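Cont'd.
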Amino acid sequence: MTAPASLHETIAVTLARSFADGEVGFTGLLTGAAAALFGTGIPLAAMELAKRMHAPNLTILLAGCYHNPDFSEIDRLPDSEHSAMLRDLTCEAQMVDYPGQFVLKRGDVSFGFSSAVQVDRVGNINSVCIGPYERPHVRLVGPILQPEHMTLFRREYVMMPHHDRRNFVEKVDYVSGVGYPGGLEGRAELGLDWGGPCMVVTPKCIFDFDREAGRMKVRSIHRGVTAEALQDATGFDLGDLSSVPETDVPSDEELELLRREVDPRRVLMPVHEHGQVG
Amino acid sequence: MSKVPLASKLISLAEAAQRVPDGCRLALGGFAVYQKPMAFVRELVRQGRRDLTIIGSAHSFDVDMLAGAGCLSKVETSYVGLEKHGLARNYRRAVEAGRLKVVDYPEMACWDRFRANQEGFDFWPAKFLGGNDVVTYNSEIKEFPCPITGRRLHALPAAKAEIVVIHAIAADEQGNVVIPARRLLPQSGDVLMARSCDHVIVTAEKIVPRAFIKRHARFVDVPSYRVSAVVEVPWGSHPTPTLGRYLADDEHLDTYVAASASDSAFNTYLDSWVREPADHFAYLDRLGSARLSRLHDLGSLA
């Protein structure tokens, strides 16, 4: 008897199904337990699963430095980008230069994962400040690599560890990663060749985009979350949610692979005390 | 052979920091929480430097300490944070109070600004900045048409550091700097920075003889003529790591982070760890040999 899928497993499977063979997936090393799980652990598990299912030639690019690292040798994820532990992780290519082996601006990266403090309805993200730029209420870390993630990568998964009204806002206070203002046409007018967010993943739901209209929409709602609770936690109108399906559960085969092969020792997705975070 | 002796560029840490005037545009090497020239930063605080502009690609304890000590007026970078230790709280307070101006740049663009200087250009072109508020709040980034295709581009101003300071594992007295074979991003970033500026100051874990340099000539990525001054500073990036030599001092970083919760607590930290120790070696004595010896990283045998 297989235990039912946890939320994290469900998200990992949803992501895995969306990756194609031969793609290159980039994940940074996010810090803080929730961000690390959503922005690093789950994406790594998803990519490992996809490699075992339908995408054997997928390249996992960790922290921009480590190509196809072997996670079977470690008992926890490194918590710093240039730790000795990460440096010694077996992989297929290790960067000694920056940006290293991948050719960022030519579009080598098929998809990436990022996180942010705010996301808005057109998919802009913000990690710079809350409040006015010159005298912010909260100064955050800065744009980091988000501008590149949202324009030079072919598509982006925005991984939000928290889903509250303050995170999902009508308009972000600072655009550090560009979504679809004015839709696809709007992006073209901004001189952007490709890229942009394809999904926003939260503990409550999965969003995707009407890219023509430049609008985020709810693709599925996670089991146990009501449409009302989702709207209440979101700072903009989600429209009619009555026909939005529940997020697909993993198949038995996917779950078996995740648990027995991808992450048998729960390194990538540590088990939460109740087995689930919702 | 000439009878004129080779010029030594070896100076003290205090002398090196004196070369940085108030108001200087200063680039600090390392990346995020790795291999920051922290001994040099502490010396700037000790000397009471003011109105500095710091330029780089990702910053942490370096900028946070300088912000907490009131040494800064501006920071041009992609990130100021402490990775697993959270937000940089001295920096955050200074920005929120309007005491410190930030000019935000994307991470890759930060490196490109140094590449511009390395190539002798005043700008570097970017084609991915449309719609980003990095442009909205930065009047130094100019939109222009590509002269070949006509497409919209943005010109990122060159970094134009007046002085670059990096921390390396070894250099000789003439300023030949060894970068380890198994380098990582922070070390390759340092090489780029060192090639972008006429006044490069290197703090090195060890001053080595010329014979050592000649034996490792293929790892000398910053040759003597690029370097203005070298300083021997063992544990010179403490409490941040020097990659492959020693690890981050997490115990000390926790002390630092706790102290950065308020201006007064941080001032006490600065008194204890920066102003009272007469110099870097007094700082190391205060840390103690037992603590330092436990931070050694064997690195690699290759």
